Amino acid sequence: MEASHSIVVAKHLLLVLGIILSVGTFTSLAARFMKVPDVVLFLVVGMLIGPSVIGLVDIKADSVVNQIILTFGSCYILFDGGATMRLKVLKDVWITIVVISTIGLIITTLITGLAAHYVLGLPIIIAMLLAATIASTDPATLVPVFRQVKVRERVAQTVMSESAFNDAMGAIVTFTILGIAMGQSEFSAGMAFGELLWEASLGMLAGAVLGYLAVLLIAHEHFAFLEEYSPLVSLMMVIGAYMTADGVNASGFMAVFVFGIMLGNKEFFGFKMEPGEEEKLEDFVMTTALIMRMFIFILLGTQVNFELMNQYLVGGVIVVTIFMLVARPVTVFLCALPDRRAKWTTKELLFMCWTRETGVIPGALAGLLVGMKAPGAEIIASVTFIAILMTILIQATTTKWLAGKLDLLEE
Length: 411
Known about the structure:
By secondary structure, the protein is mostly helical. It is built from 16 helices and no strands.
């Protein structure tokens, strides 16, 4: 009887995954035809086939399947983003990346938290918890957008790197404020900074070591006995980098991002693959990343809770508008303008002000808060969904248009 029930569940899950793949494939073609980032249409289609509308797909946010897809999918998209980074570009903008990923996230949290306090009438500590939840940008959204919209290299890589680096900071700030809200701890700037440094450093170390090992096995002149298995090596190392970092309480996302940087810059370290093997690896990574985008954003769309979102719709829209049009520009100009090494132009700064989508990482944080029955968790989840929808549907769709207006598009 138990086995029979397991088979029924397995068949149902297989059907759901098949539906997502089928719908996602045609949606991807439609996005290419309409010349918009595919994550936008994936999210919209997800809302349509989810339990609130048609009801074809209903995978709960706290289910094991959903958590596996979100975790591995985000890791793989981050790895793909890291592989597009170029060290020669990053060395000129690293100061901006570090400052905007740390101090910048705190600035965004403070401004958005004050807005939530006055607009929604929340206690200041709950308002700050809401702001910290949505403050980090989302690599799973930004990496695919910049894959499809060719923006000036250093601008695109700065925004993508920020999104990879600030997820650890976002989680640290969120759970530090949560501890205060639940009366479990007091804020310590020194402790928070030390924790951030620990998570980031160990994550980068794990990613660098495993990245070098992977490059050695697939691109070394004498030791590359796994060259023809390079796609499998990349999969194995993405999982290995995340689990290794997570096992020592470091940032797993940071680890896979740095692993991607190592693999994408193998020529910088003196390694080179055969042309045929290089193309095979690139095709595999692009196809796998597309599948991960389908699953992540279609599932994210199916899990949008319209009933909960409607409860705080007007106030939430006002807070997110302040978040997009005030908090982000202030953060970018305060953190990037003083960086004389990067010499940012006004057009580049304006583009970075607009490009900061909210997505999987803030959505996962909001889900954790609801599961923990944190103070104000429902209103935080509601505003987080509003932020995800507004930033992806408005900002992602206008990225190419704005880049064109600011003369930042590249052939």
